[in-house]
Structures
1.
Amino acid sequence: MNILAEKFREVSLSILPIFLSIVFVAIFFVDFSFNQLVLFVINTILLVVGLVFFLLGVDLGITPLGKLLGPLLAKFNKKRTLVFFAFIIGFIISFAEPSLLITAIQIASFSQGSVSAFLLVSVVSLGIASMVSLALIRIVFGWSIKTVLVVLYGVIFILSFFVSKQMLAFSFDLSAVTTGVLSVPFLLALSLGITSKQKESKRSNEQSFGLLAIASAGAVITMFLLDIVKKPTFVSQSFENIVKSSSVIETMLSWVGPSLFDATVSILPLFLMFLVVVYVNKKSIKRQLSKMLFGFGYAYIGLILFLISVNASYLTLGHVIGEQLINNYHPIIIIVFAFILGVVSILAEPGVYVLTHQIQDITAGSINRKLVLYTLAIGVGFAISISMVRILIPTLQLWHLLLPGYIISIGIMFFIDPIFVGMAFDAGGVATGPILATFILAFVNGAAQNLAHADLLIDGFGMVAMVALMPILSLQLLGGIYKVMDRRNDG
Amino acid sequence: MMDKMDENAMKKQYELTVFIVPIGIGSKIVSLIRKLNISGGTITLAKGTSNDKLLKLLQLDENHKELVFVASNQDKSEDMMRAASEKFHFEKPNKGICFSMPLNQIYASKVFKETKTEQKETNTMMNQYKAIYAIVNLGEGEAVVSAASEAGAKGGTIIHGRGAGVHETSKIFAIEIEPEKEIVLILVKESIVDKVTQAILTSTKIDQTNQGIMFTHDVSKAFGLVE
């Protein structure tokens, strides 16, 4: 099977569950307008085509770029130079992430002018950038992922006593959205590029994951510091109504501009780095050059189609489903659907696809891709369900769940293999991708808007924090099972 | 009496069978051959290219493959090649290929007793080479190479793979777990092959742990080995 047919088959299989669940919901539970259904069908096709292109582009262009850049960075003999360039790369990648900007604008609008979106984006990028440096230094010096994570989450834990409830939700949310569709494959490949140069195969396998995890923790820390220093205040207000009734063509066209902009902004810094790498490696890159150029083209086209389809249809559908389920049915129903929609939407996330494939490549297929995928999906399913429960029971607060969750995660860490630790914490950042940020976020907000006691501000954002946490738990549990199996074999 | 000796001679003939199949089929091949009472195989990921003109133009001519290495005795090798090509339709294009080659020696515990096919010493030219394949747990490849180097080998190539012997299988929710392995390929002169394999055996204990296998076969020509 050639790569095109292979991608097409895999993407169709990963979109099918979300498609079927929405069809199921539409038949038995929720009334959609005719326009919404037409948009749904058109955009699902667009979503498949977009994802196929995007993932081909990642394979041909983005991942090779990271793998080329990694060794270039590792070549710097002075650690100071490595830190400097890693910082620059981390900052640019984070700063150019469109979903970071969108979320920052939302949060800034709640703050009554006490923080600007620009400040938020800068602070988060600063955190990401310094932690990308730390993560690369970790790989070079061979520090254990466990130690680094314990220190970072220890700092987060201590700081969390001094920050406001809202800021807690915002910080985890912002750090999760920074690891977007393009930065995930790039950063994964970057750390792979550095570790592949190491001689001991076992150690390099363990070092291959964890960069995203460390980077996300950095963003949380800098956001906490911002809160402690500036003490911004936030006032809850309702989101503008996103369910607009306009014609199919109008809706589609209205999303072309923004999607084009987002895609361009996020691919541009990577493309500039590509030009630098080409310039430095002029001779050796020749054979790969046209392949990588095509790759960037595919990724760009794919990203535009993907963003249009997600925004033009799935966003509205999520909102309508949430609204109608909470108004017309028993709360149990919406909790069950929260689980199902969480599971099926994570299967369609491009970042998850890339991460699970990389796990397969690095372990030569020994850690089964599907097993990781399903474990991750179940984790996210629980995260969405729990978020719904939290919206229904206002006394249950976000930190009641986050705190024990992270403490357990850090605890389990010591009993399992480092490769699973890195993988699990990376997956936490990867799971919060664009489908979650549109479809699921709209679903949760749609439900929350129709409950008198729900606090939109904290509930919507808290959901993202939960999604970042649960895969860490579920994948680490999988790691525990592997460990037990392993021991049984030895004995 | 004659019959028995013939049978023994047959049993001692070992072969390495190699399957090249689309990605995802490798594990299925291994579970298929397990049904034929063969202990297991080692899988590595690989890439191939397609000859389609359009795909080439679009730079999409790459495809992903898996290689499966299985050591077994001769008649079983034929059985499993037949079974696999029937089940996975090797007669159709791009579904997979398989081939086998004769082995000289196999080292692994229980499953195979150490065997030595008598090599007729007709060709005593000193520049005859042999290939040694040692399949060990992840991380032990380096040790194999350094043990071999100390015994006179010039170096080795480590290939990352996965797979499991008969004692190493376990399942999580019906998905089989295949531990990570390393395949070490070493080319040495025939005169030192025994010394090198013994050195590898002492350093890795392949013949005791049930978690590895080593075999050798003839190489008719070799270039690039600097003395």
2.
Amino acid sequence: MNPIITNSTNEPAVILRSVAKRFGAVQAVRELDLEVQRGALVGLLGPNGAGKSTAIRMIMSLIRQDSGELRVLGGDALDAKDRIGYLPEERGLYRRMRVGEFLIYLGRLKGLPRQGLSARVESWLERIELPGVFRSRCQELSKGMQQKVQFIGAVLHEPDLIVLDEPFSGLDPVNARILISTVQDLHRQGRTIFLSTHQMAQAEQLCERVVLINRGEKILDSTTREVTQRFSPRAVEIEPLAGIQATRSALEAIPGIESVKAAEDGRTAVLLVNERTDPHAVMSLALATVPCRRIEIARVSLDDVFVRLVTEHGGHARQPVRGAA
Amino acid sequence: MTIAIREFRHTVLTKGFIFGAILFPLLMFVVIGVMPFLLSNDQVPVRGTVVVADSDGSVARAIEIAFARFQTKTETGIGSSTAAINDALAKSQRGDVAALDALSDITTTVEVTVRRMSIDDDLAGTRDQVQSGELLALVEVPATLLESDPPADADVSLLVPSNSPAKTTALFARIARKATVVARVERTGTDLAKATALVREPQAQTARLTSTGTKAKENLELRFMIPGGFMMLMWIAAFTSANQLLTTTIEEKSSKVIEVLLSATSPLELLAGKILGQGFVSLLMLSTYGAAGIAGLAFLTMLDIVPLLSLILFFLWFLLAYFMVASIMAAVGSAVSDLREAQSLVQPAMIVMMIPLLLWLPISENPTGWLATITSFVPPIGPFVMVLRTTGAVEPIPLWQIGLALAVNGFSTIALVWIASRVFRIGVLMQGKPPTPMELLRWARTR
């Protein structure tokens, strides 16, 4: 474990070194190493109960790690609360409080001056497509609307680091898209964004880098591009005009192809390419050999990687019996 | 401070609080102020004839004299005079029974003619007249009642119309009973005034000889009521706000808003803000009820019984008591998920906090005794006991005891707030079954 000494502006926004946390009999997080560079958009992935929320709560100094080192924006998150925005996994707001009043209250807690705060709240409500709810009571809003209000609470003070725990869960596609677009805008502004999710499609769409944890242990930490390359199945998907039955022998004869796996419909097949051959070369040869309706390099999704890695590492994590995980 | 302001506003700006803590004492004060006016203007005049049936006319005569006194009083306007009330009070204390009678109906117009009948007459027609409302009342006094040794089961009979006001009926009953006694005593040739003076019990002018040898005035009623009033006021104000603290903490925890707050502020700041905010609520409540009480004392020209020093000390004891109770409630509120779970943890604390209520009378009786002295240094009941002592003692409480009680309870308050902050920090993020007291202690020790 390398000790963290520096406190310069080049230091990553979040650093975890061998961080561990246990709740009774459950080891929620074990020996977790993690770095989130300033200005990056990093996704923390993992199945339910993997330890994502515990890791995030430790980053937010809401709970203390049992061991290991942890630095946020060059120090303790408690000392930089005004520079951090946080959307917890378990959403909460004062049900009887008015939306505007609630957001102003959060803004004041984050150190924003009273002057101009109402206008800032109104502007955010407009931006996130919640116009006219400033004076509504929180309990009058739908669940999705409440979630958007809480999102505003996390970003209202324009923090340097934004930590979002499952920001898209429970949102309909339209609202999820609005939030994704806002997160992308904030990232373009240079803010560091660290989000946890178990929705792989959104992580794939948003994140530059992903960290996958399972049973409190990190099992993957890489850029999204590297992940798709590394876990590429080295395969070519093909749909010959004459069907698979008529073309199978011609396809098997192409150099570099290990096997041809026909789909059940008999129209498409996957050509598995050996490690010494470039799948693109195989694709060109196949196209020259067999007239095709469609041919493409098979693409791996984060979903596939997620399922594969989690299965390899012993399946889904257990839900802690009691505790803050 | 932002948290404290929110906590204060969202508690105070509710219908329940506005009614309970502001409108209710105001209403009480208005009622106290207006009541004498209402009473003086809501008297039904008593005009008409009362028939008295006795054996020799002596009771009828005595009743006639009693009613004549009322008439005189009304004519001279004595009924509206406060001085007359005081005069009647003083006379009654000296044994003037008639003065006491007059007092109870001092503002009533009474113009009654007394018609005498014999107890042996046929009274059926008279009873019909009472029933129809022609007569105000029929008083029947059996002859045996006027004997020097009347039978124990003999009574005066009083018949009134069904719509006779209760107060008028009570007045007739009182006069009939007293007039019977007057007539009976007169028949024995005894001077009633002398006899009354002879059997009058003198007042005991009690004074306490203090350790310095000076005499301190003793007022038993005030010695019990004033300290009890102060202690109850403090108890209610502290517990109402602390309970509110418990409720809002549980609400914030169950609605999950607590994590949002903790991302913006530290648990200690959150706890401090909540305790301060509810403290302001408690002070507001204390001020409104206290002001109503002080205004009441001023109205009764008894303001001197609450010296300024007592009020200052009361404020200090209140702060200590509130912070102790609030810390306990906040810690419990943070550790549980709903009010039902809170009950089991709060109950032991509540039993302890009931002790001052149980000790009210013995401590008020002897504010410098060993029980009062020892319990002053036992937190969290110490501040409540000290309020009982400092507002109730005739003899001043030794300064060292006040200083030591402030120190012990002050230190305990700091310790309790510290423990509460440790428990709060962990408890607010915990879900699931409520912790045991041992777990709470472990949380308090956790780094």
3.
Amino acid sequence: MKSRAAVPITIRGLAKHYGDVRALDDVSLDVRSGEFLTLLGPSGSGKTTLLMVLAGFIRPDQGSLKFGDTEVIRLAPHKRDIGMVFQNYALFPHMDVAANIAFPLKLRGVNASDTERRVASALEMVKLGGYGARRVDELSGGQRQRVALARAIVFEPSIVLMDEPLSALDKQLREQMQIELRQLHVKLGTTTIYVTHDQREALTMSDRIAVIAGGRVQQLDTPRAIYEQPANRFVAEFIGESSFLKVTREGSDVRCAGQLLRVSVAPPASGPSLLMVRPERLRILGPALPGDGPRNSENVLEARVTEVIYQGDTFLVQAVLADGGRIGARGIASAGAMARVPRVGEPVRLALRVEETVLVADEGG
Amino acid sequence: MPGAAAATDAVQAAAPNARGLRADALRERMALLGLSAPAFLLVFIAMVAPMIWLFGLSFLADNGSFSLEHYRRLIAQPSYGRIFLTTFNVSLLTTAICIALGYPLAYVLSQLPQRVANLCLIAVLLPFWTSLLVRTYAWLALLQRKGLINNWGIELGLWDEPLALVHNLTGTLIGMVHIMLPFLVLPVLGAMRAIDRDYLKAAANLGAGPVRAFWQIFFPLSMPGLLAGALIVFILCLGFYVTPAVLGGGKVIMVSNQIANDIELFFNWGAASALGVVLLVLTSLFLFIASRFMRFEAMMGGAHSK
């Protein structure tokens, strides 16, 4: 099963108000053909509203939406020809699995033998071969999820939308499905828009992520760029762990708690900015071990340990800088590393690579 | 025997407190049973005992000996067959009209915002707050030869001669449909409200226009409520007495009316009991057949399990 040629999606100036609340505030977005794009944001950010506008279930106040070159903003949902996986799957309870998957084919006048063949192949694709005669309420959550997926792709739509499809599954199954969904996307090549509030899921699956908050796109970029060069404090806080430290500009460098730090990108000329530090990017230096000092390519932050937390795979050292700024550093909890972990109250030196010394604007969200 | 004592001790040690816990479980179950005993008793006195008595009466001749004469008469006299036919006929017609009126009404209610729908629902339920007899006589006042409807119709020139709206099948059906409608609307509305809107969104997303989405998704999912409502209406109709008696004008004789006649006019308890038993058996048979075609719990719950 190969889908029809994937199409790009062009969103321009979409706005939707509910009373005084701006659910969508002038959203513009270009989704590339065949891309897996994730809309990531907290609940109430507008990401689901945006997806519902794409599907045609919410009528926006204004804006333009194009699938390829076709303007579809006023097209009824049943004429948009896009596959969608709903959060609660929305499998029809009065139909068996095969009938659910055959439903979109019947509506498109596909003949009986073709329908049977395509339903079987869609079931194979989601690894549920032979489940056609099952009733929906006999399926587990993960199986329902797969059936919903099969139903959304069986009519070979060029666009597939997914609304938090994995949120009802337990952690292990969710992680397995993330990889399967990703593989399926590569196989089908459809333009896919995926909504989630789970940042790890977004990082795992996406070609690009659009971080949404307050009805606006805060940043649109690859998972790596979103994680390593967040556009503002909101994005940095929402994705991953981070410490934010006050800095002052000093030429092309910045000063933080009395220590001069080199930065990879020159600080912006105006507006307050913060140093963002990911705990796992810090290297914990032993206080006096020879050969364990900072390298030339690293900045060093001096701090005092306030807490050490063992977390199984890693340990987290919480420390406070001279100016009272709080910082966290994470290390792999190997036996050797654990033996060298500084104790509470001891001074500690934390090394941060210059290219990972990132400033973010103190705004956003 | 010291050996046996040791064995008991060993069991005690292997399964500590098992015996005591079992005793507690038993005591709890007995207590629960004890609490429901009054209810059982009430059901027995109010329902089961009279039924057995009725059953017994139907097999007694006038002189008090055992006899099948009442049942023989039911079969031999064609008038009884006609009465049962009328009963089922009127009940089916009432049910059909209730569905035709009630299903669209419930659909509209289910689509309205909750607050408006509740107001409308009060209007549907209002008749329940009035006595059935009062409602029936009110229809008589409206429908009779010189009633409100005929007077207005003639004054407005819609028709010249008074229409025969009452003391016949028409009047009976109007009255019965009015009384039965809420019994249909409520379960249907319950089933419709339980339908997740996402099913309809999914149908639209997969390519179904509003009409197809209604017939292929919404209607089948509301079916359990419709069947429940229809069955309740039909069974209530089978035993209806007041409305056919008042609005039927002696032309619509249902089983209940015949039972009343047997007792009031002929004082024949045996014949009346036999009629009652046959109606009960036929109704049970109908329920049994109905239950073969649908899942009963789903129907009574009104809602479709997700």
